[in-house]
Structures
1.
Amino acid sequence: MSSSQFEPLSRRRSVDTRKRLLDLAEQQVLAKGFVATSIEELVAGVGITKSGFFYHFKDKNDLARALLERHIVRERELLDDLFRRADELNDDPLHGFLVALRLFAEMMAALPEAHPGCIAATLCYQDQLFDRTIHELNAQSVLSWRVRFRERFARIIAAYPPAEPVDLNALADMMSTLIEGGLVMGRALRDPSILPRQVLLFRDFVRQTFRP
Amino acid sequence: MSSSQFEPLSRRRSVDTRKRLLDLAEQQVLAKGFVATSIEELVAGVGITKSGFFYHFKDKNDLARALLERHIVRERELLDDLFRRADELNDDPLHGFLVALRLFAEMMAALPEAHPGCIAATLCYQDQLFDRTIHELNAQSVLSWRVRFRERFARIIAAYPPAEPVDLNALADMMSTLIEGGLVMGRALRDPSILPRQVLLFRDFVRQTFRP
DNA sequence: CGGCGAGCTTTACCTATGGTACAGTAAGCT
DNA sequence: AGCTTACTGTACCATAGGTAAAGCTCGCCG
């Protein structure tokens, strides 16, 4: 805080062991799942000993929480940025949303093998291995997506009243649902194009639903 | 085969140990995941020893495969039955499909906590722990859903040509995607109503897409 | 310059779990 | 009677997560 106003500037030999542990862990968890990622493997990868790991993380559960927290922050920033860019290009709420969805689909398509979002779903499916904090973090994150999309839809509805009544929560959840499901499907079929195509299909659905 | 034409009638002391192992395993896997379900726990539950388990299953991977195979068969039977019932009620392909979707949503809503389908997704997310056979089984199952729904949509399109071109594979996959994602969401938010509502929303989408 | 504390290492050890090997045994089938 | 099925029992191994505690070392602060 005093000597350097930027970063704590590496107390010691390694530049940022904790961060390197998290980076490697994220990469391995996305590639092969949490349980298949061993602590020994991680410490060997960053060049420390097992005790060094437990200096940074209380246990493996603690690592999972740190991974999830970091993931949630990044995801929110990414979405904020994406919607901001879409809104800058567009005044109309519906058009802005449709642009954002297209941007999102393009981003998903451009991504390599490992998709983000897997972290959340991966941990969700193994959440009995973890404590409640992990589960609650996950739920909180999903709910924040619901709120974000519901607000968007509320604005769209004001401008484009739909012909039939729409379940706004369900429509908002559909986005998260398609992402989580799309990741599962993409993984099962080894076809990364599935998720972006589902997002584009959702986009069609939204467009149809609020068409003038 | 000779003495009893009904069931093999319990070779020995237990009625059907293998089935009881599978039943308990399924229940525990749905409740807390595959890795959190220990072999010791299963054998204690059905009243045999660890060696007894390895008599029935080569290893834990073999148990996973048996679980998945049984699940896939049941799922197919369930879907066959559901579509058959919907078709009996209806001649029109679109209407039949919509009825089937409603039946499906009702079934999902009526289900208790543990949904089927979790098995597939659960194993999918931990598939690096298993051998290729598990992964291929899963992919095969997902593809069979795609084929089933695509055929349905092809028949619907013949009767109700859509205004805009539709990506049939993506539309077919959307069902599986919403189911897998809906299970993740329902699990994360502890809200079993999410999946049936997503199915009903999908139904709306299909109805809109093929409306006359 | 000396000590404190952050960030580790070293050593040692415990437990749970999956898994192997193999001998033995009771009940049924032919 | 003898083969097979469906186990039990005993013994043992490896891997992984985790704990405990002492020691070392570099940078910073006074």
2.
Amino acid sequence: MKNQEIAKIFYEIAEYLKMDEVAFRPYAYQKAALNLENLEQDVEEIYKKQGLKGLEKISGVGKHIALKIEEYLKKGKIKYYEKLKKKSPVNLGELTAVEGLGPKKIKTLYQKLGIRNVKDLEKAAKSHKIEQLFGFGEKTEKNILESIEFLKKDKGRFLLGEILPVVEEVYGELKNLKQVERIDVVGSLRRMKETIGDIDFLIASKNPQKVMDFFVSLRGIEKVWGKGITKASVRMRQGFDIDVRVVSKKNYGAALQYFTGSKEHNIAVRKIAISKRFKLNEYGLFKGKKMIAGRTEKEVYKALGMDWMPPEIRENQGEVEAALKGKLPNLIAFKDIKGDLHCHSDWDGGENSISEMAQKAMEMGYEYIGISDHTKFLIIERGLNEKELSEQRKEIDKLNEKFKKKNLKFRILHGAETNILKDGSIDIKDQALKKLDYVIAGIHSNFKMSKIEMTKRMIKAMKNPNIDIISHPTGRILKRREEYEIDFDKILRTAKEFKVILEINSSPYRLDLNDRNIRRCKDAGVKMVVSTDAHHKDQMKYIELGIAQARRGWAEKKDIANAYPLNKLLKDFK
DNA sequence: GCCGTTTTCGGCCCGACTGTTTTCAGTCG
């Protein structure tokens, strides 16, 4: 599927146009990119079946952009984009990721200092060439260096949500090969880590050579690092590597266990094997030369006196001990989720109407959806004021009335994602908050406060008797922005005392709370909610990412508020 | 460059914050 690739190019075109101070056109490209990104159908399929007319039906795509999509599908590149790139040959993806750098500053840096990428940027900053530029200064230079340091830490890792669609595609193609008896995603992807270094597949086959030949001929491969009889490694066009390993069926379970990891988990498990005078490797569990387990993962763990455990918790964080004692947690799963409580509608500039969002929620098998649009402080997101909230209520009541008449067991809850202002107050009056079914509060401004001030600010908001949920509690953006400074233990104590629920935000760019904080939350007895923060109905599918992090944090059904049926949930809300 | 219960032109989300340029451009959300 080329949707993401084309979207990425359109985003870059938008940035190039902004560099040249072109008005409005950048936003047209951005909008087209957003809609392509969230499109469920393959844009290539649409083009094959309906041609240019079909492309133009995509929201935000008109005649000219449709032609550019066609050009990419036919020739693999877009002339217009190549021309822009030639004019300013800078690595936009890299440079815009640096905090404080936008198209204008990037343009100046290129024109005055010839800076094309982060490497050039770092060199210039370290030799204090940047602070001398007009419009730049000492602080900007320092911030640039700090931001580069942060980006370096995450280098080479990709977001789980970015990679999953590619994985599904490759998985599907390999699975269809008749020589493939079994195939699994292994490694950190099977463990659903928030960022992924590379993609690993394990395959069972009697004819490894055939599988290898097929694998290295897949579409989208840029370079083959190595190809042997049972092992191959390639670089994909999108910049990450895929490794494939083929084993025979009788070793499959042991290999699955071995390649899933984590390394720390495997070391702990192997120590147990040694203590029982066994040897564990990727081919099986051995007593002397005799293989005593290896066909399935379960068999391997069982032979070691352990229960099988979900991949998400294999991080040597106590799961080995729990598995030995038969005390593994019963992890939350998608089937337990009854509704999504953080969804935006077109009232605040989201893509879909309340009714469309509700429809999607029903399709997902939910009992309820919570509409929680931004409130007035966030002007850019068309935040709602008190009056608009009460108008929105009327629309929601009407829709609920309709569902009742149709005997549908489904309900829309009226919430809001309010803003925690600098002093900890909420941007909506208490009177209006009381009328909502529930209230979310989140920090969307002033991220760089001292730890003490930030903790005070958050706690003040949590003590507001109308606040039920804190959204994206640590404020991080993966690979982009660090968490703000906050005393998380104090936050947990306050959450417990004032019965505030903390959100696990499922956006692929946030995943906030993260796995470790989820575990802390659970251990502190604080309730959580898994939400998507969807600004488009198709983003509701990201719930899987949030659930995966919840599982990594050992969360069970009882820990997750939106695993509760509606009546119990409403009782818990203030 | 897109879009249309003000439809083929004329709009298109805009205020706060930061750092630096002493009056505001650029970035962020």
